[in-house]
Amino acid sequence: MTSTGNAVQANYDLAFDLYPYARVADQDACVRHPVVVVGGGPVGLTLALDLGRRGTPVVVLDDHAGPGQGSKAICFAKRTLDIAHRLGAAAPMMDKGIVWSRGRVFHGDGQLFQFDLQPEPGDRHPAFINLQQPYFEQAMVKAIRREQAAGAPIEIRGGNRVTGLEVRDDHARLEVDTPDGPYSLEADYLIACDGARSPLRKMMGLGFDGRVFEDNFLIADVRMSADFPTERWFWFQPPFKDSGQSALLHKQPDDVWRIDFQLGSDIVREVELQDDRVRARVDAMLSSQTGEVPAYDLVWTSIYRFQCRRMRQFRHGPVFFAGDSAHQVSPFGARGANSGVQDAENLAWKLDLVVKGKAGQPLLDSYHTERAFAADENILNSSRSTDFMTPKTDASRLFRDAVLDLAGRYAFARPLVNSGRLSVPCVYEAHHGFGPDDFDGPVKTRPGSACCDGPLGNGFLLDALTDGFTVLTLGQANLSVPGLAHLHIERPTAEVAARFLGDAPGAVYLIRPDHHILARWAETTPDAVLAAVARATGQEGFHAPEA
Amino acid sequence: MPLKLDPNLSDPDGAYDLLIAAHDGLDKAQSDALNARLILILANHIGDLDILSEALQAARAAG
């Protein structure tokens, strides 16, 4: 830590010193900002970068000077990489990250099956990369520094801890502690990206609805130069000693391996975190593969329990909750950080339009409607995975074991094996304001879905979309709409045709600033396209219904 | 296609005999496990979640 005062004590050691405390003029007077983000994790940084690139001023407050030690989220999905690429932050992630596609599922000594997450042909990004969360944050901050140099109105204030919050109808007032003492600031919009234990949520007296799972999981990150393949290995009832009901082995950059053990509900945390206890488990796992224990270092250990739950409302007047502060899931689907980044991108363009007076409040309400729907989908998937991995009743265990017994022998049972359903982007529904769908086209590109990538010229389709609304026309359909960006693909490649046209000769797609498909038509008029934009931006009396 | 709750087995006694005989020599835990595997195999064969749901309701209602 570079901070020297007693006011802001560090809670953890830093992985990187990215935004050390520095005094700013604001600290002498209470200044009102359009948008203040609390929390400089993956969600807060994505939001700040997206807003700043759009020209909306944003201040990020974080009580540390960078990410803490520990890998935390390690698995970033294609959708997240597409978002990071749009924001100019993906290159260092792809350079550093480990691409993986194969998973193996074991039951005891035997392999049940393997799966391959093949990249879609013609897509820029693979299904997943593994990358320690601090590297993700480092890449985001690097992109923010570049945008700042180009004039983007983004400010990150490290060593700034929020200690008080007053929420009014049209703004929020924050009390902030710094090494130079406290100051106040105000925000038209305040975004809480301050994690699962969100201090802002607590200051507002808000809670969660959902389930807490009592099982404890031990994370051990070990560094070793072992010859395991770059695959996700998951064991049900692992054969190695004291490894609990399930175990996971997954490779990260820097020769680090993530190992997870399910310890059960009845443990003494401090005892299980002792180095010799952790090493005994890791030794047993690693020697079960190679016959001997390879040399390794323990890089990071942690014990966690998890929840599958969310806040009832993600918006409270001028205050919005995003990422773990709003919703939590088990880690086995890589749905935590990945869904948080999607929260950020969902909110960024909406805040930008509203702050600039180009859209009304209902557009901001749609943040809750859409992202609560996404959170529910993640919670459902996560709860189902958890129920499979840790059966809660005799009947549940009976069926779980029956599935595992069948899966080694019969293909039909393999899709029933649930070691985590890996993150895919949410498809929003028509009642969220998406549509019309006046085109009998491929399901993959129906309104509500995230726009697919595909080869375009020497590049990729997603790169040709703008940060605003884009009218995409293909084949025989060709329609220019005044005031909207237009991309026409006269002769789409086979991949693009299969994803956007099917057998049809042409189609018109309307794509939102977050690259979700808003509507599509076999053919249409400029007025119909503009009406869809107006509906989606909270004009013409559009009201997002409650979920 | 709705769930069939009218007689559909060509040889009811033979079918019943098959189900009982499959459990010969198994203890309670093994029998329970066999039943669970059988249900999963049959559920996959049916394939249709509506029919499965109707069957589950019918089974619960009769108990």
From TrEMBL, chain A:
Cofactor annotation:
FAD
Q: Which domain of life is it from?
A: Bacteria
Q: In its UniProt entry, what is this protein called?
A: FAD-dependent oxidoreductase
- What Pfam families is this protein classified in? FAD_binding_3
Provide this UniProt record's keywords sorted from A to Z.
FAD, Flavoprotein
Does this entry carry the keyword Flavoprotein? yes
Identify the residues that the record assigns to the FAD-binding domain, covering every copy: 34-377
InterPro entries, A to Z: FAD-bd, FAD/NAD-bd_sf, RIFMO-like
NCBIfam families found in the cross-reference section: PRK08132.1
Q: Which organism is it from?
A: Jannaschia pagri
From TrEMBL, chain B:
- Judging by the UniProt lineage, the source's domain of life is Bacteria
**Matching Pfam families:** DUF2783
Q: What is this protein called?
A: DUF2783 domain-containing protein
